[in-house]
Design brief:
single chain, about 140 residues, alpha+beta, Alpha-Beta Plaits, 2 domains, 4-stranded antiparallel beta sheet, two-stranded antiparallel sheet, 4 helices, elongated
Length: about 140
């Protein structure tokens, strides 16, 4: 019985030792009122890399667009894109070719809810449009 309690005690001591030894994220100096953060230097490097990636002009993220046209006629696709840009000049329109069809997708939306609101707005002019998941332009989102 004593051996069992001794093992539990030793396990608790080891666990406490490893937890306290692993927590070195911050120390406080009581006399100066300052807090000193100690962190791995690689964290700063990773944060700098993240900033550089986000600043890239061609950076893309997963998001949503509204597809307003799908068909094999290139001229028809261009016509629909022009009609959309004339009616909704504040939104972006993208022409995508996947053999043998042309797709016209519009907008850059981070959430499906944003895309749905826009879909409802354009539905009277483009009744066959629908929401698709796509890579969207990051530069349009960060301002």
């Amino acid at each position: 019985m004593i051996r069992k309690h001794y093992r539990i005690f030793l396990s608790a001591v080891y666990l406490l030792f490893f937890l306290l030894n692993g927590v070195k994220s911050q120390t406080a100096k009581a006399d100066s009122g300052k807090v000193e953060y100690i962190q791995d230097s690689r964290i700063g490097e990773l944060m700098n890399k993240k900033v550089l990636i986000n600043e890239k002009k061609d950076a893309k993220v997963k998001g949503y667009r509204v597809q307003i046209h799908f068909g094999s006629d290139r001229e028809k696709a261009k016509e629909i894109k022009a009609k959309f840009l004339q009616a909704f000049n504040s939104a972006m329109a993208y022409e995508k070719y996947e053999q043998p069809n042309f797709k016209i997708r519009v907008g850059d939306f981070r959430t499906r809810t944003e895309a749905f609101k826009f879909l409802k707005e354009i539905s009277p002019d483009f009744p066959s449009s629908f929401i698709v998941q796509d890579e969207i332009e990051l530069k349009e989102l960060v301002k």
